[in-house]
Amino acid sequence: MAAANSGMRKRVVILGGGFGGIHTAMGLGKLPLDVTLVDRKNHHTFQPLLYQVALAVLSPAEIAQPIRSILRDYPNIEVLMDEATNFNLDEHRVMLKSGAELEYDYLVVATGSTHSYFGKDEWAKLAPGLKTLEDATEIRRRVLLAFELAEREMVESGKHPPLKFVVIGGGPTGVELAGAISDIAKLYMTKDFRHITPSQAEVLILEGSPNILAAYPPDLQVKAAQQLADLGVKIRTGSHVTDIQPGYVMVGEERIDAVVTLWAAGVQASPLGKLMGLEVDRRGCVMVDEHLNPKGRPEIFICGDLAHVEQDGKQVPGVAQPAMQMGDFVAKRIARLTAQRFGSDGTGVEKGFRYFDKGDMATIGRKAAVAKIEWPFKAHWSGFPAWLTWLVVHIFFLIGFRNRFSVFRQWAYTYLFLNDGARLITGSQELPGWVAQEGVAEPLPGKALDLGSPKSN
Fold it and tell me: Is residue 388 part of a domain?
């Protein structure tokens, strides 16, 4: 079968409303093309700030925006809330979960990545990862609930299990989660409880490799470790988790109790690459050429985390910045192809995709971060300058004026005045592994338990 709409306006189907998909769509907006963007959610999420939702600094609406509102000014783009379930690449068709089928002249697949538990998928219920708003609100529920249950236990029995939070994985997400947990325990909740002392909570990072933030330069790894230590976060490198159970994790034969366990140790690409029958790497990323096309498929483009792109002997990282640049590149490429500036097979003289690395940043806590600056100058920053740079950059890339203003206002209020943030617990009031204390025992050292006279702050 010939490509869809032969001799008519070309049709572009985009799967995924993340950074790659949104940037592709916006680049094709107002061109003489019919564009359909498909996503199983109705909103675009600014993933770099998900951990701020998970630790109750921001609310979900402040880092997400409906896809329709982002693309409302582009009359040639339609949005479908659906999900791809199968493909007929020879006939240029995408089958959707609803039963509908879409024909395309060009297909852009930008469905991102998900958690990888290295074959132990049963760990997912005990140690949630952080990829979606649902993940963020679940982590928020568990962390906040741990403090609430501890307060209740103190009232009922005079003691409670140690408030020990274990984060598995010492990459940017793990470091950000660990620092944020320490922040809320030591800064934001110190005056909220009467019978427990939140600042006594312990936070532990378990990292399998020799260093945290392995992709960062050694000097920034050291700076990050120092800043985490200042926050009271403990780090154990070379520690491979062998099992996760309710209330504890195992590192070899060692049991480490954990009132909450969080996963930040690995990711795997969206399963669509394998579903399409394309060549993939060990993480499921689709192998693509310099124009982001799979082998022999010039009408298909792969963007973002799902793309395996080699540059200077290394794979381009699966983070927001490359995904945005890939989306922009694909939009320009399709625009040129449909303008018939190249042959029908997509050949012609044109530079391939090249990732312009502006640097990497990871926030660690209030006024603490590390930043590897590559543009407009090269520098390694840490502490408050890095944190301030991180704040400005993330606000700049947020989509929508309302979101930028709302986030800046909330950050300013939270960080300057140590206010409540978005500390709401929704859903179940049960926590995996929480064991109620039996009988009335001696209070924790240095804590006089008098239910008629709550502890002073």
Answer: no
Q: What is the maximal distance between C-alpha atoms in the chain?
A: 82
Please tell me the distance from the alpha carbon of residue 245 to that of residue 247, in angstroms, as a whole number: 6
End-to-end CA distance of the chain: 74
CB-CB contact of 168 with 137 (8 Å):
no
Before 376, cis peptide (omega within 30)?
yes
191-219: pLDDT as tens digits: 899 999 999 999 999 999 999 999 999 99
Q: In the structure encoding, which two tokens stand for residue 116, read together?
A: 């990888």
Q: Does a structural domain hold residue 291?
A: yes
Domain count for the chain: 2
pLDDT of residue 306: 97
Q: Is residue 353 part of a domain?
A: no
Considering the domain architecture, whether residues 217 and 316 belong to the same structural domain is answered as: no
Q: Which of 226, 181, 227, 186 is nearest to 204 (CA)?
A: 181
Q: What is the pTM of this model?
A: 0.88
Q: Please check whether residues 249 and 127 belong to one and the same domain.
A: yes
pLDDT bracket for residue 73 (50, 70, 90): very high
125 and 147 part of one domain: yes
In a domain, 57, yes or no: no
The residue type found at 222 is V
CB 276 within 8 A of CB 181: no
Query: What CATH number is attached to the domain comprising 99?
Result: 3.50.50.60
Beta bridge partners of 206: 168, 236
The domain of 133 spans 121-265
110 with 127, same domain: the answer is no
Give the residue from 208, 240, 265 where a domain finishes: 265
Those residues whose C-beta lies under 8 Å from the C-beta of residue 68, and which sit 6 or more positions away, are: 42, 79
Distance in angstroms (rounded) separating the CA atoms of residues 89 and 273: 12
How many CB atoms are located within 10 Å of the residue 167 CB? 28
Q: How many CA atoms lie less than 13 Å away from 315 in the CB half-sphere? A: 16
pLDDT at 27 over 70: yes
Active-site residue set: 176
Residues 260 and 214 both lie in one domain: yes
Q: Say which residues have a Cβ less than 8 Å from residue 383's Cβ, sequence separation at least 6.
A: 223, 227, 367, 368, 369
Which residue has 């930043």 as its token pair?
Answer: 371
